[in-house]
C-alpha cells in the first residue's frame, strides 16, 4: 500500500498564510465596492437634502423680504433718526388714561385707546396691554377690544389693510401682514417681536353666544410714521 507523503509543518504554515491573504484581499475588495456604493448613495442623498434646504431657505427669505420691505418703508419715511434712538414717550401713561386713537379705514372706525385691558378700559374703547410697548415703539404693541362693541366689524379687516394709530408721539401706520385664529389661552399673541409690530385681538367667533373660546388676531407691521 502506498503511503501518503507527509506534508512538512512549514508548508502548512505557508499554505495557511496564502489562504488568509486571499481571504483578506477578497474581503477588502468586497468592502471597498460596498463602501463606494454607499458613499455614492449617501452623497446623492445629501445633495438632495441640500437642494431641499436651499428651496426652503429661498421660501423663508421671500417671506422675510416682504417684512423687510415694510420696515424699509418706515425707515425711509423717518427723516430724523431711528425710532430705537428716539424716546417716543418721555412719560409713561397711567392705567385708565386715554393714550390715543385707532383708525381702521376698512370699516371706517375711529376708536379711543386706553391704557390697560381691564373691563373699565374695555367698556370705554380699545385697551392697550400694559405688558407691551406703546404704539410706535420697537417691539410688539398689543391692543384688545370687545367683539360686540368696538371690534364688531373687525372680521372684515384682513391682510393688506391699514391700521393707523395716533398718539402724543405721532401717527403710526401699520399694514396687516397676518390674520390668526388662536385659542383664548394662547400667549404667543403677546410675545416680543424683533420689529415694530401692532397686534390687535378680540374674541372669536364674532357671533358666539357667551364666553368665546378663541381669539381673532391681526398682526401688523409698521409701514409709515410721522413723529410729532
Brief sketch in words of this structure:
The chain is of the alpha+beta class and about 230 residues long. It has helices at about 10-75, 120; strands at about 100-105, 110-115, 125-130, 140-145, 160-165, 170-185, 195-205, 215-225.
Keywords:
228 residues; alpha+beta; Sortase, Chain: A; 8-stranded mixed barrel; elongated
Describe the structure.
The structure is a single chain. With about 230 residues, this protein is α+β, with helices and mostly antiparallel strands. It has two domains: about 10-75; about 85-225, Sortase (Sortase, Chain: A), CATH 2.40.260.10. The chain has helices spanning about 10-75, 120, and strands at about 100-105, 110-115, 125-130, 140-145, 160-165, 170-185, 195-205, 215-225. A hairpin with a 4-residue loop joins β1 (about 100-105) and β2 (about 110-115).
Number of alpha- plus pi-helical segments: 2
Over all CA atoms, what is the radius of gyration?
34 Å
CATH topology of the largest domain: Sortase, Chain: A
Give the CATH H-level superfamily of the largest domain.
Sortase
Gross morphology is elongated
Poorly predicted ranges (pLDDT <50, ≥5 residues)? 42-81
Q: What proportion of the residues is helical, as a percent range?
A: 25-40%
Q: What is the straight-line distance between the termini?
A: 124 Å
Can you count the beta strands? 8
CATH A-level architecture of the largest domain = Beta Barrel
Query: Strands of the biggest beta sheet: in what spatial order?
Result: 1-2-3-4-7-8-6-5
Quaternary class: single chain
Average pLDDT number: 79
The secondary-structure element order is HEEHEEEEEE
Structural class: alpha+beta
State the major sheet: 8 strands, mixed, barrel
The domain count comes to 2
CATH class of the largest domain: Mainly Beta
